[in-house]
Design brief:
Length: 414
């Protein structure tokens, strides 16, 4: 029977035998940090990829693997009945087939069949397997029974291929699990209760930050001078003011309390992470310096100078802010940044209109103490309503608060 109303939610974390099983460690840690009681259950073969000892140390109770490990001969019914939710990450093609077929020949599948709790599966496998009709059929069967499927992402897979099949971002998995458990996400430690005070209390904010890295080969990339300081300051300030904040960042800077961090590397990663999270957001602030161009071809192995100077052909990256403007739902506030070195306001105003945003924060990054990597900034906030707010040179935290004041005013007016 699921726990009492004031007890921490009881989640069974199932791990099957995929290379991304190591990412389940992060799912486990984040769920425990969010105040969830995590009971890890590994399949026998999953232990070839990741150690039981790791889950023993990070989970809320000892890891279980076999049907006969426990003193009790029926651990699957204990787990299945006690669970408020079961999440399987990664879910391999084999695990999905056994679950869809009602097999119960190990502790994880037996628990899945024995539970009445919501179940979330996070498939991860090679692209060919993901696209195989049997896998898609099993997922359709499971979906029709009410199982939540968090699809894999597109990206580099084990073995170097690129395509759909990579396990969904652990932060996203944890967000969905907390969401299904009815727990607020992103304030205090992830999943803690929202503070009652602050002019952004209850507002869901997505902030992007940092300069993306666009790979040339496994050891080289193209990037820019962005440090992520202004975006991180915005995320921290929004959390201080009571918002539920998700920070999608290409920067490895530390982040203050109350912010759910989603690390990304490329513009494509950032696009997937921002678009999936912005659907439910009240405010989206694109402070990231997203690369405008990326190498058209990413070499799978290191380029050598002995092979001559490589020709670097670039292609445009997806314009995330433009896409956000296109998809924007009623009442959502959208903020962009325009870091310029000349004709600053003219260019910023053109981007404000072209990308369909409410506010464009313009900064002249050629000026002393302004923009990239400085601790200070000087900006002008241009509004779609024709307004202009000058924010003179000051610390990035104070600039963040000035931007959020404008966001608050827009939210109040809606
Ligand atoms: O077009 P430009 O790069 O100058 O626009 C800057 C604004 O657009 C920033 O808010 C940045 O985060 C966003 N942007 C984006 N996707 C891109 C390039 C920029 O969302 N590919």
């Amino acid at each position: 029977m699921p726990g009492a109303a004031d007890a921490p939610p009881f989640v069974v974390l199932g791990v099957s035998a995929g290379i991304s099983a190591y990412k389940a460690v992060e799912v486990c840690r984040r769920l425990v940090d969010a105040g969830v009681h995590v009971a890890p259950v590994l399949t026998e073969r999953a232990t070839r990829f990741v150690g039981k000892a790791t889950f023993d140390a990070l989970g809320s109770e000892p890891t279980q693997i076999g049907l006969w490990d426990e003193a009790s001969p029926i651990p699957h019914t204990r787990l299945g009945q006690r669970a408020d939710l079961v999440v399987v990450a990664p879910a391999t093609a084999d695990l999905l087939a056994r679950y869809a077929g009602g097999f119960a020949d190990d502790l994880l599948t037996a628990t899945l069949v024995a539970t009445a709790a919501p179940v979330v599966v996070c498939p991860a496998m090679h692209t060919e397997m993901w696209e195989h009709p049997s896998v898609q059929h099993n997922l359709a069967v499971l979906s029709s029974r009410g199982v939540t499927v968090i699809p894999p992402e597109e990206g580099r897979l084990a073995g170097g291929d690129v395509g759909p099949g990579r396990l969904a971002d652990p932060a996203l998995i944890v967000e969905r699990v907390l969401d299904l458990l009815g727990r607020p996400v992103g304030v205090g430690s992830p999943g803690a209760a929202a503070p009652a005070t602050g002019d952004l209390a209850g507002i869901r904010v997505v902030v992007s930050a940092g300069g993306t890295r666009e790979p040339i080969d496994p050891v080289r990339f193209i990037t820019n001078r962005s440090s992520g300081k202004q975006g991180h300051a915005l995320a921290e300030a929004a959390a201080r003011r009571g918002a539920q904040v998700v920070l999608v960042t290409a920067s490895s800077r530390p982040v203050g309390p109350g912010v759910v961090v989603v690390p990304v590397e490329t513009a494509a990663d950032m696009e997937a992470a921002v678009l999936s999270r912005s659907e439910g957001a009240d405010v989206v602030i694109m402070a990231a310096a997203v690369a405008d161009f990326r190498p058209k071809v990413v070499h799978g192995s290191k380029l050598h100078k002995t092979d001559g100077v490589p020709e670097l052909i670039l292609e445009p990256t997806p314009d995330i802010l433009f896409e956000l403007g296109r998809r924007r739902r009623q009442g959502q506030v959208l903020v962009g940044f325009a870091a310029e070195t000349d004709r600053v306001f003219e260019r910023a105003r053109a981007k404000l209109v072209g990308k369909g945003v409410d506010l464009m924060v313009a900064n002249d990054v050629a000026a002393e103490g302004v923009g990239f990597d400085h601790d200070t900034n000087e900006v002008t906030i241009l509004g779609a309503d024709g307004s202009t707010t000058e924010v003179p040179l000051r610390g990035k935290n104070a600039v963040a608060d000035a931007i959020l004041d404008r966001v608050c005013a827009l939210l109040c007016a809606r």
